[in-house]
Known about the structure:
single chain; mainly alpha; Hypothetical protein af1432; 10 helices
Amino acid sequence: MNNLLWQEAAAFASNAHKHQVRNDGRPYVSHCFRVAMTISLIFGFDDAEVLAGALLHDTIEDCEVDYDEILELFGRNVANYVAVMTKDKRLEEPIREVSYDRQLAEGPWKGRLIKLADVYDNYSDSPKEKRATYVEKVSRILELTKNDPQLQDAYAKLQELLQESAAC
């Protein structure tokens, strides 16, 4: 396996998101880096393909990047992780969310691992007064991952985060 894969993905994600910013004004790509770091440091996974997928998880959905480009540069597994994390924006919102949940449920478990980290970061990075808007999304991903034996530790960490913030 290419040990430089996650580094190549970090550079690609930085370039793809270079003009995007988060709601708080920080560079958008910081979210992608935090998702990868959550997978590694909090969830304890160090698979280079998963880390690459985490770094690239929003490139198809939010940038001028397509599946074939990710496939060519990073391989089928990474491309599939990114694809499972990509919502079909052609669909109306309620239908899009149902379709997305089904896509996540039927996709590779490592894609759901990236989604757990994505939700963990979005929730923990949001101001306390806005966290209530993420609770429904967090609940949905927890429901999708509760029976994945590979995801039990990550699932528990996300539940722990919710409990800690509810206590505050």
